[in-house]
Amino acid sequence: MIVSSENIREVRCRPFQDQKPGTAGLRKKTSIFMQPHYLECYIEAVLSTIDLPESSRLVVGGDGRFFNDKAIQTIIRLCAGHGVSHLIVGQGGILSTPAASVLIRQRRAHGGFILTASHNPGGPDGDFGVKFNTAAGGQAPEWLATTVFEASKALSAYRISDIPDLDLTRTGIQRIGALTVEIIDPAQDYLSLMQRLFDFSAISDMLAEGVRLRFDALHGVTGPYARRIFCDELGAPLDSILHAESLPDFGGLHPDPNPTDAAELVKQAFGANPPDIAAASDGDGDRNMIMGPRFILSPGDSVAIMLAHADKLPGYRNGICGVARSMPTSRAVDRVAEDLGIPCYETPTGWRYFCNLLEAGLIGLCGEESFGTGSDHAREKDGLWAVLFWMNLLAVLRRPLPDIVREHWFRFGRNYFQRQDFFIDDENRAVDLMEFLRDSIGGLPGKRVGSIVVESADDFFYRDPVDASESPHQGIRLCCNDGSRIVYRLSGTGTSGATLRVYLEKHEPERGRTERPLAAVLGPVAECASEVARITRFTGLESPSLVI
User: Fold this and answer.
1) Nearest in space to 212 (alpha carbons), one of 194, 245, 244, 235
2) For the chain, how big is the Rg over CA atoms in Å?
3) pLDDT of 495
């Protein structure tokens, strides 16, 4: 079929007023995306904003959640309607978020559409999402997201081709007039990059010697990648992978790699015969949880230890030029950066803030508390990369994972850390709480709750060191007299209501006090956080909905 002006039509429609992207693209309930014209209008707003050149090339794929297959066919038609000449699509419409980022960069694409709501539940009653990543492979910067939102509120029509559905199940080239659609193995480019970054021979030898891996894909996109990498390439037994099949509703699981939602994996890690390394990733493959025998590795400790040992791995032999963490994340990595004499940047939550620093060559490693870690190999956080990093580290250091962490605490002290999530049905209550905190900032220093005294308080303001863009109101920070820190912010990844996130942290430098129960160390800090913010009064909740 030839794509010509006769195949392209303009569909008149009313604009939607709610297509404002969050920290990682546009996320809504699946039913909202499935309503007439909704997806089309958002993609139209993106395509009409990004000013693609002639002979443009885009990457398209998603995490396989419900509506992924139909949405991709719609995006192909819209791209054809806008004269895109080359689309690179993952076989079956599947691409993990980090693999899509790698593809955009390696194939020199002009950007890509990634269909995912990350760790949010899937299915007809679940969540769906779309985000546009730029030619650098990273999430759209804030100015572009804002421009797309403004365009979405003003458009009155979209351009779409009438080409039929394409067969996405077979790899190869399909040409439809001037449009080339290339269906690719979703794992090959990603695998090739991982083989350059890590010592696959050392990891394979370690597994052959009896070191045991258990990986939980949570029925998300990483199942096929994990089988290909861990089993086919590295020789791990097939039963090393739990919930390996990618399912549209994630098998009813909440595909979030944390101790609560990956309870089956945690049970194995703390069982009678635990694996040497247990790990999980989320729906779209960008998050990770790492555990050792009867030991859960904190995300903040993970990125700090990665930085301390990065030069022992092939892809990072020359060291790391700088590191960044999101503001709420544990400050454990700051101490390692100081020891190495490299800069450590503190950014707002949202991977796009790391992308500017990565593109400018200011950092080579970054991480956030919500189980996200990455390096300059991609412009997204990367769950399987983090697992491979730790497997390679175990192969090099030849010590159990808990021992590696305890040796780190012995040298740098321990940053005790906990996140408390409060799920609030009425978003206005959450907004009122944050406004109350902002109005109270001036009077908080000197406030005492039990033995804790607030020493300083501010509303985090970020000025990007690369482009000087400014991001105000990124979270309320309290620093206290006992070395503890409290952070409050509203999550930007949900699709209904609001989630208040409260981050608690306390550094313990004494070597004999680094393995105390978390509740004993952070309990008083949590009480202070609750009283200062009047959480029960504003939310009606007596306790957190989720503790991580």
Assistant:
1) 235
2) 23
3) 61
Tokens of 114: 């990634």
Task: Report CA 52 to chain centroid distance, whole Å.
Answer: 27
Give per-residue pLDDT as tens, 233-285.
999 999 999 999 999 999 999 999 999 999 999 999 999 999 999 999 999 99
The rounded distance, in Å, linking the Cα atoms of 249 and 63 is 11
Identity of residue 460: F
Amino acid at residue number 371: F
Q: Which whole-number Å values give the CA distances from 293 to 267, 402, 403, in the listed order? A: 11, 7, 10
Under-70 pLDDT residues of the chain: 1-6, 492-496
d(CA 189, CA 194): 9
Tell me how far apart the alpha carbons of residues 30 and 41 are, in angstroms, rounded to a whole number.
15
**Best CA proximity match to 167, nearest among 155, 154, 176:** 176
Burial string for 57-67 (b: 16+ CB within 10 Å, else e) reads bbbbbbbbbbb
Specify whether 56 is catalytic: no
Q: What is the pTM of this model?
A: 0.95
Domains of the chain: residue spans and CATH: 8-186 (3.40.120.10), 190-412 (3.40.120.10), 414-547 (3.30.310.50)
Q: Which one of 96, 118, 370, 530 is the catalytic residue?
A: 118
Q: Residue 54 has what pLDDT? A: 87
Q: What stretches of 352-508 adopt beta strand conformation (E)?
A: 365-368, 372-375, 414-424, 448-449, 452-459, 462-463, 470-471, 476-480, 484-490, 498-508
Tell me the C-alpha distance between 103 and 359, whole Å: 16
For the chain, report the end-to-end CA distance as a whole number of angstroms. 53
- pLDDT for 314: 98
